[in-house]
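Q: Hi! Curious about what GP-PDE domain-containing protein looks like structurally. Here's the sequence.
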Amino acid sequence: MRKLLLLFLFLGGVGLQLCYSQSQPLPIENLIDIFNNPIKYPNYIMISAHRGYWKDYPENSLPAIQAAIDLGADMVEFDITKSDDDILYLLHDYGLDRLTTGHGIVRKGEGATFEYYKSWDELKNLKLKEVTGEVSQYKLATLREALLKCKDKVLVSIDKAENVIPQMYYLVKELGMVNQVTFKTKIQFFPTPKSIKDLVTSEEDKEQLVKMFTPTVYSELLDKDPDLINKMKAFIEAGCEGFEMIYFQDSDPMITRPVTVEGTPYDNILNWLKVKNTRVIQFPMWPETEKGCWVPRKFNYSIINLKGTDRRCDWDWLLKVAHAPDVVISDRLEILFDYLKTIGKRSLD
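A: Let's find out. The predicted structure is below.
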């Protein structure tokens, strides 16, 4: 009996150790190197926590960010906006009603041009809501608070920064986090490295800002913009480390269409990016609730066809070797951790 008890204790200890080690994030220096050099880590797909870990906490909240870090996410993705008195804070929607105890619009606009409403005094004491609609004890987080929560612990991807990029950048620089933070918006809004560089003044800041930019590229641009490859090539040459590439199904031109760059043929645009040691980022868009994915500008849910044309929700399909991304932005972190480990894609070897 004593031997049996010792065996159980040993196995229990091993199990706890494995669970604990799985949740330990890599040092920030390792994460930066992995992100910047995907070709060195072919068996490591990075996990980015979409709006933090909002299964147990309100999305884009400080505890959601901390929970993602504790779980071992490589990157935390969150959305920012600003008050009409220039305080940057975290919020996904254009209005307050779905996510907070407040009411009304906080921003309005298209592309990279917005008008902002509500002072920080009107916003700072609002309570955040859980995904169920239940009111939590947590409040809106400022960008400064969110960045400090992540500093020296995890990579950061900032979304919806298109109209506040300079203000965001100088805060990131002040906190000494320029090598740790990326930001994204559609490549149409900032189609050239110069369009990004012109947002700041010094040459050093110009070079750094474009390195932090991970443009979002939707598949239809392959048909709509005949100069797309040249635009992306210019960003790569300027130091851009990755692109968020949005592809949906087997027939998607990002997967099926050969491209030729500087006289060299590639099977598709994703293959070209991988050869160039440029990280491919993908957001599978798992339904955030049973209703689907919330569309902030339209104030409604977009229903995702899980069995139809949108195959990003199918990890078996998304992570096929032929077109697997290097970073998956996910709402289902624990499941993705286990899935990637099972298929051998969380190894540094």
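A: A fun detail: The radius of gyration is 21 Å.
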